[in-house]
Specification:
The complex is a heterodimer of chains A (136) and B (300). With 136 residues, chain A is mainly alpha-helical. Chain A has a domain of 80 residues: ACP-like (Non-ribosomal Peptide Synthetase Peptidyl Carrier Protein, Chain A). Helix content of chain A is 38%, strand content 7%. Chain A is globular. Chain B is an alpha+beta fold. In chain B, 27% of the residues lie in helices and 28% in strands. Chain B contains seven helices and 13 strands. In chain B, helix 3 packs antiparallel against helix 4. The longest helix of chain B is centred in the middle third of the chain and has 22 residues. The chains are: A mainly alpha (136), B alpha+beta (300). Chain B: InterPro entries: 4-PPantetheinyl_Trfase_dom, 4-PPantetheinyl_Trfase_dom_sf, AASDHPPT_N, P-Pant_transferase_sf. Chain B: Its EC number is 2.7.8.7.
Chain lengths: 136, 300
């Protein structure tokens, strides 16, 4: 009897939303002997939704654009959670920041979305969404 | 003309602030424009009094601002709104601290009169705008108002025409590209920005209701308005056929404030005005301390 070592070990990480398991019939297995298992377990890539935090590199690039636009000093702290308004950005600044981000990432943001981003994190998330769409 | 409501002695002794001097309501088609220069408000005891007028939410927002200058400006903006509106209540004395505010369904702030059962409360509309060095508040009755102020010397970090092509309407881009001098182009760009912002803010429906590239603002041929203190030009808005979201006509006014800022005002046109231009009364103020009438002028 042939023993089939099915790779049945599936390591689950903390965040994955879905684990898809494919099942398919095994028609024959070496020398025509029947296998004791009629299907194989195969691990498909886990599917993650976009609600995860934006990549640190994206956040850093957004911070750099914002720093430049608002002429922030080195000492001025800016993180993912920072609100543009709290840094003194008005609507003209926000639009200029959007233009800076469009240039930096090679994307185009719809005006309504652009006017609605209020934090570094939101900008980064929108950018990643647009990059993802673009890559499709 | 200055009206000092606190004597020199009172101020130096930091005595309790006097009550606010009441104001005459704006008439129809008239806008009252109030502004503060933050660098003229230095007294820490005065600022402390101001902070006592704010609601807990407002205080929290002030504290979220990064750095003392931004905190101070945020405080002054709320103080300007509260004290100015409180002063227009000629029927009963209104405590600026007691005023409540709410947002319309698109997020535009407005006065919440629920606490006042007196039906004689005038239908006041207001809108504020601020820059680093100037905070302004426009007030009207019966008609919605939007204002925007910008420092005349504000530098745009991007190429002006590229910026305009991205955000402004085709006609506005055309207009800007006819200007040979880059400095003139920059100034006209800023003027257009304030006018467009004022319009969107007057509409009060958020930016998606009137994306900048869907409407054009241009100066009305044959109008003039050069005054000593505030230069004004009358503007009209024409929206493209596609956007039928605008209700009625809108009136514009563009002025220079204090030689340093452009201020654009947009109000909904009242048909009763018969096409007459907007009248703007500009006053510089330090709440509880003094008002200075800058101009009282009519547009042609």
């Amino acid at each position: 009897m042939a023993s089939i070592a099915a790779s049945a070990s599936i390591s689950l990480q903390a965040r994955p939303r879905q684990l898809a398991i494919a099942a398919r019939q095994v028609k024959s297995f070496s020398n025509g002997r029947r296998s004791s298992l009629s299907f194989n377990l195969r691990q498909l890539p886990t599917r993650l939704t976009v609600s995860c935090a934006a990549k640190p590199e994206t956040v850093d690039k957004v911070c750099a654009v914002v720093r430049k636009q608002l002429s922030l000093k080195e000492a001025d702290e800016i993180t993912a959670a920072t609100k543009f308004a709290a840094l003194g950005a008005d609507s003209l600044d926000t639009v200029e920041i959007v233009m800076g981000l469009e240039e930096e990432f090679g994307i185009e943001m719809a005006e309504e979305k652009a006017q609605s981003i209020a934090t570094v994190e939101q900008a980064a998330a929108l950018i990643e969404e647009l990059l993802f769409e673009k890559a499709k | 003309m200055r009206i000092r409501v606190m004597s020199q002695l009172q101020r130096s002794l930091s005595i309790e602030l006097p009550s606010l001097v009441p104001l005459q309501l704006p008439s129809r088609m008239e806008t009252h424009l109030w502004f503060i220069r933050p660098d003229e408000v230095k007294s820490t005891s005065l600022l402390k009094h101001y902070s006592q007028l704010l609601s807990p939410t407002e205080k929290e927002k002030v504290l979220q601002m990064r750095g003392d200058e931004l905190k101070k400006n945020a405080l002054l903006a709320r103080t300007l709104v509260r004290t100015t509106i409180a002063r227009y209540q000629t029927n009963n004395e209104v405590d600026p601290k007691a005023l409540m505010f709410k947002k319309n369904m698109y997020g535009k702030p407005e006065v919440d009169w629920q606490n006042y059962t007196n039906c004689n409360n005038p239908p006041l509309h207001f809108n504020i705008s601020h820059t680093d060095s100037l905070i302004a508040c426009g007030v009207t009755v019966h008609v919605p108002v939007g204002i925007d102020v910008e420092d005349k010397e504000r530098k745009i970090k991007h190429d002006i025409l590229a910026f305009a092509e991205r955000f402004y309407s085709a006609d506005e881009v055309k207009f800007l590209s006819t200007l040979p001098d880059p400095e003139v182009q920059r100034k006209e760009f800023i003027k257009l920005w304030t006018l467009k912002e004022a319009y969107v803010k007057a509409l009060g429906k958020g930016f998606s209701a009137a994306p900048f590239n869907t409407f054009t603002i241009q100066s009305k041929v044959g109008t003039k308005g050069e005054y000593n203190l505030c230069k004004m030009t009358e503007m009209t808005a024409s929206s493209l056929e596609e956007t039928n979201k605008c209700d009625g006509e809108w009136k514009f006014s563009l002025l220079e404030l204090d030689d340093s800022h452009y201020a654009a005002i947009c109000i909904e046109d009242d048909e009763a005005s018969g096409g007459a231009p907007m009248r703007v009364i500009v006053r510089k103020t330090i709440p509880f301390v003094e008002d200075e009438l800058i101009s009282e002028s009519k547009l042609l």
